[in-house]
Amino acid sequence: MDFDFTWVLLGFPIAFTLGWLASRIDLRQLRIENRQAPKAYFRGLNFLLNEQQDQAIDAFIEAVQNDPDTSELHFALGNLFRRRGEYERAVRVHEHLMSRGDLAQPERDRAQHALALDFLKAGLLDRAEAALRKLEGTSYEEEARLALLSIYERSRDWQHATEIASKLDSTSHGSFSGRQAHYLCEQASAALAAGDADKALGDLLEACRLAPALARPLIDLAKLHNQRGQPQAALDALLKLDKTAPQALPLAASLLVNMAQNQAMRAPVIELLKTHYARMPSVDVMDALVRLDQNPASARQWYIQHLEREASLIAASRWVAGEALGTEQNHKLVQRALDHATKPLMRYRCAACGFEATQHFWHCPGCQAWDSYPARRIEELYP
């Protein structure tokens, strides 16, 4: 039977017409979707730029309802909830993203990181730790480790903090050896409180090895040697401190005074204090020299010597305390006023956040920064 080409010729225009109609229907549907979904999205963006967060959230929720598969809208919505402190809603958004089976691995890692931040901001440290641990081996690994380090520092879990700091030190561009040394000092303090002086000594020696220029391990080591009846070893540690971190020696001034109660150590301790004061005069070293000077007249001369080098209200107040100013009653009034004025000047101030304290901190209780407290008093920092 012969094939009839007439049907083929008739089929071409029919197929073309059907294809054209189908394309018009698809284009029309696409235009409708583009008019609907982005409209809510851009409205939300406009609200966000105008800092109208409530209206922005409503607009983004509408956009997500119109297109629930849009992950970027979920992330934007979750971040908005977190910024507003609505952590429970932020968690729900990010957990919904995690439950989607069609989510690509990079987006899943991003959602896991966002979920961890939700828990961290909400103060749910256990859940935040578990969520951050799941980011090992992802592109968010370093950020997760830094967050874990913050969690362990806040909870004073120094063993896990050491583990994370060691990983960061081996992979990061920065050095975390200083922090590891501080963690070892914290562990040494805990061991000493538990009566394990040998472990404390081992931790401090390791801290000195990790960060030889850090002041804290040497000061803590000197304290431990002095407690164990080894004053010469304590002095050797402080002599090393005077070479590697001389600005921190005033923090050990009271310890040096205590060591000088041993007559065999008195002369070398005074010599160390005098040589250091000649290079870097400070209120604490001046006080130590006054306390160790057995001659009251020459002891008071240290205040005058300090005033010749620095305009110090603290030194002036100490000198006035030993002078006769008219009647005894007037002297007490003047001294009380001076003591009140010098009290704020004797504080330490964090260089990172400005938190002030009467004692020196290695770890700022305000901003959690390490080594942010200078070893000098406020008066010496801002003369």
TrEMBL record:
**Positions contributing to Fe cation binding:** 350, 353, 364, 367
Domain called LapB rubredoxin metal binding: residue spans: 348-372
User: Residue ranges, Cytoplasmic compartment?
Assistant: 24-383
UniProt-listed SUPFAM superfamilies: TPR-like
Q: Enumerate the transmembrane spans.
A: 6-25
InterPro entries annotated for this entry? LapB, Rubredoxin_2, TPR-like_helical_dom_sf, TPR_rpt
- Show the Pfam families listed in the entry: TPR_16 (PF13432), Zn_ribbon_LapB (PF18073)
Q: What are the protein's UniProt keywords?
A: Cell inner membrane, Cell membrane, Iron, Membrane, Metal-binding, Repeat, TPR repeat, Transmembrane, Transmembrane helix
User: Where in the cell?
Assistant: Cell inner membrane
Task: Tell me the function of this protein.
Answer: Modulates cellular lipopolysaccharide (LPS) levels by regulating LpxC, which is involved in lipid A biosynthesis. May act by modulating the proteolytic activity of FtsH towards LpxC. May also coordinate assembly of proteins involved in LPS synthesis at the plasma membrane.
Q: Which HAMAP family match?
A: LPS_assembly_LapB
The UniProt family comment states:
Belongs to the LapB family.
Put simply, this protein is called Lipopolysaccharide assembly protein B
Gene behind this protein: lapB
